[in-house]
Amino acid sequence: MLAVFAWAAIPLALSQKVWAQQVPLQDKPFAEHKIVLQLSDGDARKQALVLSVANNLLKAYDPDKVAIEVVAFGPGIDLLLAGNDRRRQVESLIAQGVRFDICLNTVDTIERETGKRPEFIPAATPVQVGVGQILFLAENGYTLVRP
Question: What's the Cα-to-Cα distance from 136 to each of 7, 35, 100, 129, rounded to whole Å?
Fold first, then answer.
């Protein structure tokens, strides 16, 4: 009987661990639209496209009525590295209420492979699992867009 209880508790413990890794939802109580933009590509054109989509959404909707979150993982975190040429654009969007999440699993992998932890912009929000954050947002009413 104890073994059955232990097996039943494993999914609960795992789900609590994953839940604990998510950052809270944005505090946008009047948001009528919730969008998560996936950035998993290091290509400069795709990064520019993600920034353009976020910018266009802010122009099309009142910034208080739209919640935009960009989740970067894998090669996509290049956009959020301190030395990126588009840093000012990212920081401008953050100042307008767009949240940029950076996957710490990717950061940890780069550190293991290179021996150096990449420096990312301080305004980026660290999340442990980028794809997990996308899943969390989708489960909470965000529409996933992958430009």
Answer: 25, 12, 15, 10
With CA atoms as reference, report the closest residue to 97 among 127, 61, 73.
61
Per residue in 109-118, pLDDT (tens digit) is: 999 999 999 9
Count how many Cα atoms sit within 13 Å of the Cα of residue 139 in the half-sphere of its side chain.
9
**Those residues with Cβ within 8 angstroms of residue 138's Cβ, 6 or more apart along the chain or in another chain:** 36, 144
Q: List the one residue out of 142, 145, 139, 110 whose CA is nearest residue 32.
A: 142
Q: What are the two backbone dihedrals, phi and then psi, of residue 34, each rounded to the nearest 5 degrees?
A: -130, 120
Q: Using alpha carbons only, what angle is made at residue 125 by residues 120 and 126, rounded to the nearest 5 degrees?
A: 75
DSSP sequence for 34-50:
EEEEEE----HHHHHHH
Give the whole-angstrom CA distance, residue 47 versus residue 38. 10
User: Which two tokens mark 117?
Assistant: 């932890």
Cα 46 to Cα 111: distance, rounded to the nearest angstrom: 24
Residue 42 amino acid letter: G
pTM of the model: 0.84
Kindly tell me if the per-residue pLDDT of 124 is higher than 60.
yes
- Res 3: pLDDT: 41
